[in-house]
Amino acid sequence: MYLWPPSGTKLHTVAPAVLASGIDRGQNDVMTLRVAVLTEKGGVGKTTVTLGLASAAQAAGDRVLVVDFDPQASSSMVLGVDPGEARGRMREALDAPRPGGAAGSIVESCWGAEVVVMPAGRDLRGWENSGSAQVQAHRLDRALKGIADLFDTVLIDCPPGLGELPTLALTAADRALMVAEPSVFSVDAIGPVADLIDEVWQRYNNRLDLAGVIVNRMPAVSAEAERQYDAISKVVGKRAVWKPAIPQRVALAEAASQSLPIHRLGGRASDVAEAFDQLYRKLKRS
Ligand SMILES: Nc1ncnc2c1ncn2[C@@H]1O[C@H](COP(=O)(O)OP(=O)(O)OP(=O)(O)O)[C@@H](O)[C@H]1O
Ligand SMILES: [Mg+2]
């Protein structure tokens, strides 16, 4: 049974009921896992990993909220939301004076009732606000209060870089999940992300933990990729590098362009879907 009403296209119409039921869940709140997916470097696969995990969550029968925190709005588009229509929604949620402001900003995805999205509009670009850094850092956390608890998993797809939005995402998360490619540039970009996680943990959110690093775009055979994979293990420690790595597969780009979860692509993507299933199970145990 889903708490989230499965009918209608714009879920914000049921916001008050959703908010109330979220607050009433009491100790079940601890069951929700909030995960920020981030990298310093762009194009490494944050959106692909976020959506692959959302697909695995759906396949496992879990309810999942994807928070698209990137003004490029890639995950919103793959989940069937037009970023033009989403304009203003995220900012409204972040600016809402009361906790739970996300309720009016969440819409259904085209994947099915188990997956809903808090979409980004392009207006999120350059979002800045007045107030102290402390108040600002907690804005997404505040917006999700009582809302996140309605889901088994909340996945926050961050923009590339280490600016304000990733800071807000980490402040709202229980786990930081890094994505890396087995390439020298991607490996070099891990240290600064680890520093940001540490800073947010110290300043804003002592619930935050590093979940691990998912290696994406692993070629079937490449000595250089193997070397860089080992280099990632040296930077973050062997146990922090999650297995399996996501292979380099055109099916992932196809799923995105067709707005489909990878699990619905059938046999030719079954190994990738299985990899996300394993990673999702690990995430839930983390
Ligand atoms: N394992 C993979 N195999 C093949 N293509 C992939 C893989 N992972 C990602 N891609 C493709 O690479 C491109 C970039 O991936 P993605 O959008 O997930 O990266 P990102 O880190 O979210 O980028 P940005 O920093 O711009 O948000 C997309 O076209 C995606 O389909
Ligand atoms: Mg992205």
Q: What descriptors fit this protein?
A:
single chain, about 40% helix, disordered N terminus, alpha/beta, Rossmann fold, about 290 residues
Provide structural commentary.
- By secondary structure, the protein is of the alpha/beta class.
- It is built from twelve helices and eight strands.
- It has a single domain (11-285), classed as 3-Layer(aba) Sandwich (Rossmann fold), CATH 3.40.50.300.
- 39% of the residues lie in helices and 13% in strands.
- The chain is globular, with a radius of gyration of 18 Å.
- The structure holds adenosine-5'-triphosphate and magnesium ion.
- Adenosine-5'-triphosphate (ATP) is lined by residues 39, 42-48, 70, 72, 74, 160, 216-217, 246, 248-250, 252-253, 256.
- Magnesium ion binds at residues 46-47, 70, 74, 157.
Write the topology of this structure.
Layout: H1 15-23, E1 33-38, H2 46-59, E2 64-68, H3 74-78, H4 89-95, E3 107-108, E4 115-118, H5 133-137, H6 139-144, E5 153-157, H7 164-171, E6 175-180, H8 184-188, H9 190-203, E7 209-215, H10 223-236, E8 241-242, H11 250-257, H12 270-285
Parallel strand pairs: 1-5, 1-6, 2-4, 2-5, 6-7, 7-8
Antiparallel strand pairs: 3-4
The structure holds adenosine-5'-triphosphate and magnesium ion (MG).
Residues 46-47, 70, 74, 157 line the site of magnesium ion.
- Poorly predicted regions are 1-30
**Could you tell me the mean pLDDT?**
87
Q: Major beta sheet, specifics?
A: 8 strands, mixed
Ends distance: 25 Å
**In which order are the strands of the major sheet placed?**
3-4-2-5-1-6-7-8
Total count of strands: 8
What small molecules accompany the polymer chains? adenosine-5'-triphosphate, magnesium ion
User: Which shape, going by the Cα principal axes?
Assistant: globular
